[in-house]
Design goal:
The complex is a heterodimer of chains A (378) and B (314).
Chain A (H helix, E strand, L loop, with lengths): L2 H16 L2 H22 L6 E7 L4 H12 L3 E6 L3 H10 L4 E5 L3 H8 L5 E4 L4 H29 L8 H9 L7 H23 L1 H8 L2 H5 L5 H30 L8 H25 L3 H18 L12 H7 L3 H15 L7 H21 L6
Parallel strand pairs in A: 1-2, 1-3
Antiparallel strand pairs in A: 3-4
Helix pairs in contact in A: 1-11, 2-8, 2-11, 6-7, 8-11, 8-12, 8-13, 8-15, 11-12, 12-13, 12-15, 12-16, 15-16
Chain B lengths: L7 E12 L2 E12 L3 E6 L5 H9 L6 E6 L2 E2 L4 H4 L3 E4 L11 H11 L4 H15 L14 H12 L6 E5 L7 H16 L3 E6 L2 H4 L4 E6 L2 E6 L1 H6 L4 E6 L3 H8 L5 E7 L2 E6 L2 H14 L6 E5 L3 H9 L6
Parallel strand pairs in B: 3-8, 3-9, 6-7, 7-8
Antiparallel strand pairs in B: 1-2, 1-4, 4-5, 9-10, 11-13, 11-14, 12-13
The chains are: A mainly alpha (378), B alpha/beta (314).
The complex binds adenosine-5'-diphosphate (ADP) and magnesium ion.
């Protein structure tokens, strides 16, 4: 391999990208638009649902429960009403979107029987919001129940019982606040990079075939590896700019908590960018028409990355055969990495498995692409 | 005048290549010496481009052996690539790169040293008349300038073999002259050139010419020997209405073939001395005016037409 020919390819490709400002603009603006679209799509998450509290008991425990609703961040206890009629009125006026009624015997029931009921009512005009709100309310109550039961068991010298709330807690542990946004937005970044990256390189070889420049290129001493690496250099830079843009938007605009290190983020992002560009390049080598290559790139990346990467559907809840298929979906490794780096602050050594998977992917793709490059017309 | 030696630079034996049902190249053998300008002449679809591609190692033959500059092209197509330059029929440079950028790119692919590149670039651009256009995008050049840029890029390294597929088709006469001046110069320095052409006057400038038809070589020799070998003699008939003259003479006795060329008709006959008065009489009989009939030396196109006619070989 000659570095000189590799750089010549990179130089030529860079000039061509530069001379085609429309494509460059698309390459840089597409992630912006997608980030806005998908990022805001998931950030319709509800915040501070106004609640009307009908605390009929006014005990330590009942006040504690109300406090928990407010502390969760999803609710605000703006109104207090003493009667059911007043609650209804507040709901009807739209002064609040839901109501929580704590019965007079709340503490007593809890102390004696170990269980108590709290009534929650929500305005169901906006079913979507209502469903989410109910889910959150259940979360708050489940958490309260669990805490109470542990205390109760401890006070009575018993082992804490294992109940449903524990399970819920485990799943939202690193995304405290149960905020689905924090969980989804890192995955959105992965999906966007997978789509954009493959599109970037999917045209690079077919363009040479369509414009008739390939015949002369392959008659020179340039090798398949030099063509590939040379062409990837400028797209790698663009891919990293896109990635940086998406990641910074996630951190500084959508305010997803970032607890990891930027170095870990940079290393893993570079690796993932290499994989997605390699996929696009491989498609480009295999399909000689530009339109065909771009469509295949879209189809091949869209469905797996959106459905099977853990972005929309949790992988551990899929049927076993589907889970096995997801092992081939390179985006899932980056989704895992991003969630871990963002929410857990995982260091490099905790990410060895997904990093190894991505590295293997990168090596395989580059090897296959270099071998698939045809330096003949037939 | 020529630097032709007895060193064989291009050798092809029994080349065959088909595309589906089309036999583009059938059993072609060629031997080209160092310093030759060898011309491939043939109608569209005769197989010129396919032969060029096979020799350049960008297409694999179905059968046959190829050696170019001592390299077995079929076995090691990569190794021959630093020895030759191939200019495809369709413009193969980057239209969104400037003249200078294209030259730089190809010089890097062939690992030309910067000093050599500067020297050669200046010299070649001057010879091609492209010096003022270095910063122009290749896509904005005229057809002739594009072809000359292709040649400059092909010559930026020192190829032993130059393969040019219809380099002057659609090129203006001035650019064609520049082009040929460069080719003659190259021959002096021992570069072997194989070119295909649709222009008969260019075929006459080659040291040897192969006449191709349907993927086969019908005849291959120096232009002068090809002309000598043409059966019969050639009469040049100038007429006001050459179409009518052509029609009138078609079935005349002793006429072997006709070729309409602008305001004249080339008539190939078995015996010039005997047929000339006969044809004159025939034209007078049919009242085709202002006819003038002279015996002329055949051009390559006459030889070509003669060879391609079914009874021409008789
Ligand atoms: N890549 C190809 N696929 C199918 N047919 C081809 C291909 N290349 C050439 N041919 C056919 O082979 C024949 C010779 O073509 P070509 O070598 O291009 O001739 P020329 O250059 O003399 O015009 C033609 O009939 C052409 O249609
Ligand atoms: Mg051709």
């Amino acid at each position: 391999m000659s570095l000189r020919r590799l750089f010549a390819m990179a130089f030529k490709e860079t000039l061509q990208i530069w001379r085609d400002p429309r494509s460059l603009a698309i390459a840089l603006l597409m992630p912006v638009m997608q980030m806005a679209l998908l990022g805001y799509g998931v950030s319709l998450d509800i915040k501070r649902v106004p609640l009307c509290i009908n605390d009929q008991e006014h005990s330590q425990l009942s006040r504690d429960l109300v406090q928990r609703f407010v502390a969760s961040g999803w609710f605000s206890a703006d109104h207090a009403s003493a009667t059911d009629r007043a609650v209804r009125g507040a709901l009807d006026r739209g002064a609040c979107a839901g109501a929580v009624t704590i019965p007079v015997d709340f503490s007593r029931a809890l102390m004696t029987t170990g269980s108590a009921s709290v009534q929650t009512v929500f305005d169901a005009t906006d079913t979507n919001t209502t469903n989410v709100a109910i889910g959150y309310a259940q979360g708050v109550i489940a958490q309260t129940t669990a805490d109470f039961e542990s205390q109760w068991a401890a006070a009575h010298g018993l082992r804490p019982p294992k109940i449903g709330a524990v399970d819920l807690e485990a799943r939202v542990w690193f995304n405290e606040g149960l905020d689905s946004r924090n969980f989804i937005i890192p995955a959105v970044v992965a999906v966007i990079l997978a789509l954009v990256g493959a599109q970037l390189t999917s045209l690079t070889i077919s363009r040479e075939w369509e414009r008739g420049t390939m015949e002369q290129l392959i008659s020179t001493p340039v090798t398949a590896l030099e063509v590939m690496l040379g062409k990837l250099v400028p797209y790698f830079v663009i891919g990293l700019v896109d990635a940086a843009f998406c990641l910074f938007t996630a951190i500084y605009w959508f305010k997803v908590p970032f607890r990891g290190s930027f170095i870990v983020l940079a290393i893993t992002t570079a690796l993932f960018t290499l994989v997605v560009l390699g996929i696009g390049y491989l498609i480009s080598v295999r399909i000689r028409s530009q339109l065909g290559a771009s469509q295949v790139a879209l189809i091949l990346t869209m469905t797996p990355t959106t459905m099977l990467s853990g972005y929309t559907f949790a992988i551990d809840q899929m049927p076993a055969p589907v889970q096995a298929v997801t092992l081939l979906v390179y985006a899932r490794y980056y989704v895992t990495i991003l969630r871990d780096v963002f929410l857990k602050g995982s260091p490099l050594q905790d990410l060895l498995i997904p990093i190894a998977a991505l590295s293997a992917y990168a090596a395989a793709i580059i090897w296959i692409a270099a071998r698939s490059f045809r330096d003949r017309l037939d | 005048m020529t630097a032709t030696t007895h060193e064989i630079v291009i050798e092809a034996q029994g080349l065959k290549r088909r595309f589906g049902a089309v036999e583009a190249v059938r059993d072609i053998s060629l031997t080209i010496m160092r310093g030759e300008i060898f011309g491939l002449v043939g109608a569209d679809g005769a197989g010129k481009t396919t032969i060029m591609r096979l020799l350049a190692g960008v297409l694999r033959p179905d059968a046959g052996a190829i050696r170019v500059a001592g390299v077995d092209v079929v076995a090691e197509p990569k190794r021959v690539r630093s020895e030759l330059s191939y200019m495809p029929q369709r413009f193969g440079l980057y239209e969104d790169l400037t003249v200078a950028e294209n030259i730089f790119f190809y010089s890097e692919l062939f690992s030309v040293s910067p000093r050599e590149r500067r020297a050669r670039t200046g010299q070649l651009l001057e010879a091609a008349g492209l010096a003022p256009f270095q910063r122009r995008l290749a896509g904005q050049l005229s057809g002739g300038m594009k072809q000359k840029l292709g040649l400059v890029c092909a010559l930026i390294h020192t190829p032993r073999v130059l393969l040019l597929d219809e380099p002057t088709t659609g090129v203006d006469p001035v650019s064609r002259r520049d082009f040929w001046a460069i080719l003659y110069n190259l021959r002096e320095s021992g570069v072997t050139i194989l070119l295909s052409t649709a222009y008969m006057d260019e075929a006459e400038r080659c040291s040897r010419v192969a006449l191709l038809q349907a993927g086969q070589i019908r005849s291959c020799d120096t232009p002068s020997r090809l002309k000598q070998a043409m059966p019969g003699a050639l009469l040049d008939v100038v007429a006001d209405d050459p179409g009518a003259a052509n029609q009138a003479l078609k079935d005349a006795p002793g006429v072997l073939g006709l070729l309409l060329m602008g305001d004249r008709v080339h008539v190939r006959v078995d015996d010039a001395g005997r047929r000339s008065p006969e044809l004159r009489a025939r034209l007078a009989e049919r009242a085709i005016a202002h006819t003038e009939i002279t015996t002329i030396e055949p051009g390559i196109e006459d030889v070509f037409v003669a060879l391609l006619e079914p009874d021409g070989a008789a």
